[in-house]
Amino acid sequence: MKWINRVSKLFQPTNVVPKSYLPKIDVSSKSHQLMINTGIISNSSTGMFTFLPLGLKALEKLTKIIDEEMMLIGGQKIYLPALTSASLWRRTSRMVESQPELFMIMDRHGKEYLLSPTFEESITNVISSLGSLKRNKLPLKLYQISRKWRDEIKPRLGLLRSREFIMKDLYTFDSNLENATNTYNIVKSAYETILNRIGIPHLKIFADPGTIGGSISHEYHYLSNIGEDIIKLCKNCNYYEGRFKESKSYCPSCQQSLDKINSVEIGHTFLLGTKYSEPLQATFIDNNNKRQFLVMGSFGLGLSRILATAIEILSTDLEIRWPLKLAPYTVCIIPPKEGSKEESASSVAYDLYFELQNSNIDVIIDDRIKETIGKRFIEARKSGYPFVVVVGKNSLNSVPLIEVHDIYNSSQFKLELNEVLQYLKNIL
Length: 428
Known about the structure:
alpha+beta; BirA Bifunctional Protein, domain 2; Rossmann fold; nine-stranded mixed beta sheet; five-stranded mixed beta sheet; 27% strand; ATP binding; aminoacyl-trna synthetase; ligase
């Protein structure tokens, strides 16, 4: 027998929000409050969060999109240890400027480690420890999706500025700058595809390489009032620039004034050159059988930040809205209330459930039949299910009809059972 996803069994601790509720934007962000109120995440400690089942399911869907696109460009998935030897960061000269934001620990032998906020040193040390790579192994693209750590002086805005966060980081290794630049452009294109699949408009801008370093760098941003970054935008010709550019008050293309808008950085790419491979001795054997330093690239995407910003942008004050492809469950089915006139139609709800499940559509059934349909419908909206299917009084018609609510588009249909299946399959 197949497992049935039931709301009654779902671990979703929720906060009751009164009708007079107003978002406490001065305390937190809308996304943070919604994710707490609807049982997506829970606070573990300052700047640390537990992903609960619905939140983890959305994260897994985002991970799947990234894995698919990384596979298409030859990315190979690995998993690096969370702890990195502090000596590696000293060899690359990053320790001094970065130490205030690092979580440092010491083992019983007095050796220093850090909880890595990024893994350039760690992955380069892996390559170096294996000896010189053969040229036919290049370009090498290794990535992971894991937790990272930063000792934020003042964690805020939930997952947008936390001490522990989830990132995808990719590191590439090439034989020369020309090849590394080509790889850099391939990965940039893959990032564009990933963000387009998520479905929220984004901007890609030239950026300052900062402490990570390199010769070329780009940032990827979502526009949101909650964002702490500032982008200048010309609404007339869609010209934009980030903080890395020289400050201008007008657009160089059409001379119109530039508006300042807030944004959230959700990705960053770097063409590193040999900044890490030289001090850590990561090399390959060239055609003349000589050792040469590998030319590297580093590419990051903030998964937890993407989820939080998506909710921030799309949601109402009281109801979560996910990007359709990241919604934990795409369809929620609400069967009749126990003891109601339409209770005899309960089997229709389960027939529909199994049909959708067999069509690989993520579906959950709200089997709390002692609750009214209205109450369950409100809770389904709050949880952010894109489609809510109600088997109610219309199911007793001579031609039984099922209510299909397209929540995100504020539309509703009454369809026959076979039409419900076809409608949802066509969309999803």
